[in-house]
């Protein structure tokens, strides 16, 4: 290259000419619908997500499932730092993953903190995997790291060897759905006052629950919601204990058990604040029980499905006698829905 080409003036001139030529050339990105001529537009400038305010980025991350949140920490240091924001870990749902105890412990140590309010887990009862979901050590660590945990939901887990006394003391809602429990499993937690703040207890599908497990629940003074659907070992003795110890219940779900009209009468006479009531698949209960339920004027939602022994006339009388009823689930919708709608068009019939 000669000296002339190396001169600074000539170099600056070439750069300015190239810049002017680039600015004068339009970027074509579309076509006019009317004339078919090309429409010049300004050059598109890409926006990097890292240029967004951190509050906006955290809001975007909140829509990610837990697994994607964990993976996002590998993208860059900024993602890793923002993913530890406490607002992203208030409600953690792990039911869509087959997560083992070791991985669950790792997630707990990395991300769960005082901000955690709601934790939902799924075990391995319905799979061929033979492993534990929880351990005593994990529950102790969860209690220490998340002292504000108010709701714990566990599905399909083997919990017979797990001490209930190690459950977090901050729990207000405990849902153990279709879990394997031994008889008297809740007793240590009740005796030690671990569950004294409990407001709702769901033991649906826990087939080992018996009448003897119900009486110790009298210590749950703040209990408002109780679900015992699928606890087939229960009978009228359990209902007698529930109505005596928890007359202020707002929701009671029972079914698939040997309850009779005697138990239904106890419920109707003692539970004056009940708003939601279910008696699914109770073959020993007759239409006479519907007359007892008719006295419960506070009922808003009622489920009497899978009880073909209830005649239509008794159901109509029941609906007429419940002024606050908003929703009712029956065995055969086709035969009674039209008549119920005539009685009260605001009732939802399922």
How would you portray this structure in words?
By secondary structure, this protein is α/β, with parallel strands linked by helices. It has 13 helices and 13 strands. The chain has a domain at 50-88: Monooxygenase (Up-down Bundle), CATH 1.20.1280. It has helices at residues 8-24, 54-61, 66-72, 77-82, 101-111, 136-145, 187-191, 211-214, 236-245, 261-270, 288-293, 312-320, 333-343, and strands at residues 27-31, 38-41, 91-93, 118-122, 151-155, 173-177, 200-202, 225-229, 251-255, 276-280, 301-303, 327-329, 348-349. The strands form two sheets. It has an eleven-stranded parallel sheet. Helix 8 (211-214) links the parallel strand 7 and strand 8 (225-229). Helix 5 (101-111) packs parallel to helix 6 (136-145) and helix 12 runs parallel beside helix 13.
- Helix percent reads 25-40%
Strands side by side in the biggest sheet? 3-4-5-6-7-8-9-10-11-12-13
Shape: globular
Q: Give a count of the beta strands, DSSP E runs of length 2 or more.
A: 13
Distance between the termini: 89 Å
């Amino acid at each position: 290259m000669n000296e002339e080409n190396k001169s600074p003036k000539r170099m600056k001139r070439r750069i300015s000419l190239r810049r002017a030529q680039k600015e004068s050339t339009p970027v074509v990105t579309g076509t006019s619908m009317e004339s078919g001529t090309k429409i010049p537009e300004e050059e598109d400038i890409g926006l990097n997500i890292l240029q967004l305010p951190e509050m906006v980025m955290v809001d975007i991350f909140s829509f990610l499932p837990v697994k994607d949140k964990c993976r996002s920490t590998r993208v860059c240091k900024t993602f890793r730092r923002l993913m530890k924001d406490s607002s992203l870990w208030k409600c953690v749902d792990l039911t869509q993953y087959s997560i083992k105890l070791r991985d669950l412990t790792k997630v707990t140590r990395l991300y769960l903190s005082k901000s955690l309010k709601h934790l939902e887990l799924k075990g391995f009862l319905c799979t061929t995997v033979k492993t534990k979901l929880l351990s005593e050590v994990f529950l102790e660590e969860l209690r220490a790291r998340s002292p504000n945990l108010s709701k714990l939901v566990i599905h399909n887990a083997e919990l017979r060897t797990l001490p209930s006394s190690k459950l977090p003391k901050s729990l207000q809602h405990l849902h153990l759905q279709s879990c394997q429990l031994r008889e008297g499993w809740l007793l240590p937690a009740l005796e030690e006052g671990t569950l004294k703040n409990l407001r709702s207890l769901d033991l649906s599908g826990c087939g080992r629950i018996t009448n003897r497990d119900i009486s110790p629940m009298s210590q749950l003074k703040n209990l408002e919601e109780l679900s015992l659907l699928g606890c087939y070992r229960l009978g009228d003795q359990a209902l007698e204990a529930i109505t005596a110890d928890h007359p202020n219940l707002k929701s009671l779900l029972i079914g698939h058990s040997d309850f009779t009209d005697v138990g239904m009468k106890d419920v109707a006479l003692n539970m004056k604040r009940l708003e939601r009531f279910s008696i699914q698949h109770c073959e020993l209960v007759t239409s006479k029980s519907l007359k007892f339920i008719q006295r419960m004027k506070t009922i808003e939602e009622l489920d009497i499905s899978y009880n073909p022994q209830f005649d239509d006339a008794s159901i109509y009388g029941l609906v007429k006698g419940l002024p606050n009823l908003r929703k009712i689930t029956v065995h055969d919708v086709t035969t009674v829905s039209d008549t119920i709608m005539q009685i009260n068009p605001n009732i939802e019939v399922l």
